[in-house]
Amino acid sequence: MEVTVIKNKLTAREREFCLLFMQTGDAAVSARRAGFRNPGADGERLLCDEKICAELERLSDYRARLLRAMAVIGYRRLAFGSTSDAASLMFEENPSRETLENMDLFLVSEIKRPKDGAMEIKFFDRVKALEKLETLSMEREGAGSLYDAIGSVAAGSEYDD
């Protein structure tokens, strides 16, 4: 089986087209914004170019890895984050905007202040966040269970992916 290596030497305008296409999904709009003279025809032509397709595939893979990493970070915050700022919010009568902006309320799903003046704070489900983390960790080839990893660490042994 012969493998062809494509040199991915793109012009600045072609790179710009690829980035714009990843955002818009529209070849003509992307070509126009990238500065091509005939956006409709140039957009179609660019999508048929092997170098462009290779770059779009690379960008797509990168975006998928980035989004997955961001999801893992978010689920970790939900599963293991602190509720101390939300607890201190309970004791604030009329918190200022500055106070609220400096609080980490990522774990809070809902805040209610009924007419009686009390405050009700609901949090995202930590168990569901742990389950999502386990699912994401199992999607990686050869990755073990998140619960196995936690158990290994708790038992004092090292855990390797």
N-to-C SSE series?
Answer: HHHHHHEEHH
- The coarse silhouette is elongated
Tell me the strand order in the biggest sheet. Answer: 1-2
CATH architecture of the domain at 8-65: Orthogonal Bundle
* Strands, count: 2
Walk me through what this model shows.
There is one protein chain. With 161 residues, the protein is mostly helical. Among the domains are: 8-65, Arc Repressor Mutant, subunit A (Orthogonal Bundle); 84-123, no CATH class. 60% of the residues lie in helices and 6% in strands. The chain contains eight helices and two strands; from the N terminus they run H-H-H-H-H-H-E-E-H-H. It has helices at residues 12-24, 27-34, 39-47, 50-80, 84-89, 97-101, 126-139, 146-155; strands at 108-112, 120-123. Strands 1-2 form a two-stranded antiparallel ribbon. Strand 1 and strand 2 (120-123) form a beta hairpin. Helix 1 (12-24) crosses helix 4 (50-80), helix 2 (27-34) crosses helix 3 and helix 4 (50-80) runs antiparallel to helix 7 (126-139). It is elongated. The model has no long low-confidence stretch (mean pLDDT 84).
